[in-house]
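Running low. Got one?
___
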Amino acid sequence: MSVQLSVDGRRVDVNVDPRTTLLDLLRERLDVIAPKKGCDHGQCGSCTVLLDGRRHLTCLALAVAQDGAEIVTAEGLAGGPDGEHDLHAMQRAFLEHDGYQCGYCTPGQICSAVGMLAELADGHPSHVSPDLTAAPKATDEEIRERMSGNLCRCGAYVGILAAIRQSAQASA
C-alpha cells in the first residue's frame, strides 16, 4: 500500500506491506534511527515520536494507518534558520542535567517530554491532577506520572526530571 508521510520535515512517499509498523518503516526503510526498538510491545517508550503533534508509540502503530501524518522524531526537533541544527530546548536541558546514561531511551524520553509539556499547556489533566477543571501545573508528581510510560534501564530519572522541570519553567 502507498503511504505519504512528513518525517522530520521531509515528505516521503513509500509502498509498505500493510503489516509494517511505523517503527519498522522509519528505521528499516527510511533510515530514521532516533526512535528505538526497545520492547516492541508499547511498554518502554523508546520508540516514542510526535505524531501530528502528540506523543505516540511507533511500535504499536501500523504505517498504513498513518497516511498523511506529520512525524517528528528527536532528531527532527533540532533545527534552525538556514539549515542550522540548533538543539531543541528539551535536548539542551537533557544535556545540562545528565538526563541520559547509555542514551538508548533518550530520543523517546525527549519526544515524550515535549509532547507531555504540550499536553500540560493544553490543560489536559492526568491521573494525579488534583483538580480536573484547573490547568495542571508541571509539578514533580505530574511529570513523573506523565512520563511513567518511558522507562530508563540505567536509572537516569533524576536528570530526566530536572531537565523536564527546567524546560517547563522556561516555557511557563
Notes: The chain has a mean pLDDT of 94. The domain at 82-171 is CATH 1.10.150.120 (DNA polymerase; domain 1). The beta strands are 2-7, 10-15, 48-51, 54-57, 70-72.
